[in-house]
Amino acid sequence: MKKRNNNMPTGVKKLLKAWTCLVLVLCMIGSLTLVCLADDASDPITVINNLSDFMFGLIRAVGMIIMGFAVVQIGLSLKSHDPTQRANGFLTLAGGVVITFAKEILNLITG
Question: Tell me: the pLDDT tens digits for 64-96?
Fold first, then answer.
C-alpha cells in the first residue's frame, strides 16, 4: 500500500487546523448556550414539581433500559443454560423494576 504524500505547505496546514478548531469551538458554544425565560406568574413550587417530574422521567428511562438489558441477559442465559447468568439477569430485572417505578414506590412510602 502506498503512503500518501501530502503536498500541502505547512502554513496552509496550520491555517486549516486553526480554522477547524475555531469552527468546533463555535459549534460547541452555539450548542451549549441556553435561553432562559422566566414567566412572571410562575410559582416556585410549580417549578420544583416540573423539575421533579423531569428527573423522575429520566430515572424511569434508565430503569427501562436496565430492564431491557436484563431481559436480554435472561434470554441468553436460558439459551446457554448458565444458572449464574440467569440469577444475575433476574437480579438486574428486579433492580430495573425498582428504578422504573421509583416515583410510585416513594409515593406509597410517604403516603
Answer: 999 999 999 999 999 888 889 999 999 999 999
Report the domain count for the chain.
1
Q: What pTM value is reported for the model? A: 0.58
CA gap 47, 53 in Å, rounded? 10
> How far is Cα 91 from Cα 10, in angstroms, rounded to an integer?
58
Q: Is residue 47 part of a domain?
A: no
Could you tell me if residue 76 is inside a domain? yes
Q: Residue 78's domain spans which residues?
A: 53-111
DSSP states of 14-45 as a string? HHHHHHHHHHHHHHHHHHH-------TT--HH
- Compute the C-alpha angle 46/51/55, nearest 5°: 150
3-class DSSP state of 59: helix
Residue 75 forms part of a structural domain: yes
In a domain, 105, yes or no: yes
